[in-house]
Design goal:
Largest sheet: 5 strands, mixed
Strand order of the largest sheet: 1-5-2-4-3
Number of strands: 5
Low-confidence stretches: 1-25
Oligomer: single chain
Helix content: 40-55%
Distance between the termini: 88 Å
């Protein structure tokens, strides 16, 4: 079946469903996008008038199928709706037989797409062949810009959170000044105090990682539920992968232990009398 969507200069007009179909009329089978069928109240077997312009609707079409299009981020915000006809019927409707805007070519496994595209481009003039990867790369430039923007925000957030975490650990260690002074007075080595404080920082960082991962999953689920309903689509807007969770946990543990080590080093290298408040 051929696919036809809105293009400059071409309009596929759909009028109200009509009950009867003249016996002499040539009826085309039409597949209607689910959202369009819901908006127009169409169901299987309904008959439509089709045409290239709104003032000329010569062809009748019967709804033979209602389909769900593949989710496409590039199409989600567009108000366009689509119907599908057999290629020959679409060409006759548009008055452009033996002409297509684009078509796809399937390759057997093992055939390099770039090599096939180069051979086809040398075969004849009047068309241009691109691999699906090249088309996807070109059409996703906007998403790449958004992705880089998000990556920049993430880097700034990580730096800011690292500074904030260091300040928290310094304040927390400062509360242990008297405990550290007593341990120093009774002969506990600096290395032991440093290890205890570092272990405490690691536990706090691990707990924060688990809590943050749980919060991320809840926020992602809420985001997907809202925008899937808003756009009426099955796209995934927020994706929390195991790789992201692992990176976040490792980063959290690393930053937490670095902050804890800095604060503990500062504490154990302070004189006990100063810690006690007598120095």
């Amino acid at each position: 079946m051929g696919t036809h969507g809105p293009r400059p200069g071409i309009l596929l007009a759909i009028l109200l469903s009509i009950g009867g179909t003249p016996a002499t009329a040539q009826v085309a089978e039409v597949a209607v996008e689910r959202r369009l069928a819901e908006e127009l109240g169409l169901s299987l077997g309904d008959t439509l008038r089709l045409g290239a312009t709104v003032d000329s609707l010569p062809k009748l079409g019967v709804v033979a199928a209602i389909y769900e299009p593949r989710a496409d981020p590039a199409e989600i915000a567009k108000p366009e709706r689509h119907v599908r006809l057999h290629l020959a019927e679409l060409a006759a409707l548009l008055g452009a037989p033996d002409r297509v805007d684009r078509y796809g070519v399937g390759l057997r496994p093992g055939v390099p797409p770039d090599t096939a595209a180069a051979i086809l481009n040398r075969t004849a003039f009047g068309y241009r062949v691109y691999s699906s990867q090249a088309i996807a790369s070109e059409s996703s430039q906007t998403f790449l810009v958004v992705s880089r923007f998000h990556r920049a925000i993430a880097v700034i957030t990580i730096v800011a959170s690292a500074v904030f975490l260091l300040c928290i650990m310094l304040l927390k260690v400062e509360e242990r000044r008297l405990d550290a002074a007593v341990m120093r007075f009774v002969g506990v080595r600096r290395r032991t105090i440093f290890g205890a404080l570092l272990l405490e920082a690691a536990v706090v960082a691990a707990f924060g990682s688990v809590a943050g991962s749980g919060l991320a999953y809840l926020a992602g689920a809420a985001t997907n539920a809202y925008y899937r309903r808003f756009f009426d689509t099955g796209l995934t807007f927020s994706l929390i992968t195991p790789e992201i969770v692992l990176f976040s946990v490792v980063l959290s543990l690393g930053l937490g232990m670095v902050a804890g080590a800095v604060a503990a080093w500062r504490l154990v290298h302070t004189q006990p009398l100063v810690l006690w408040g007598r120095g």
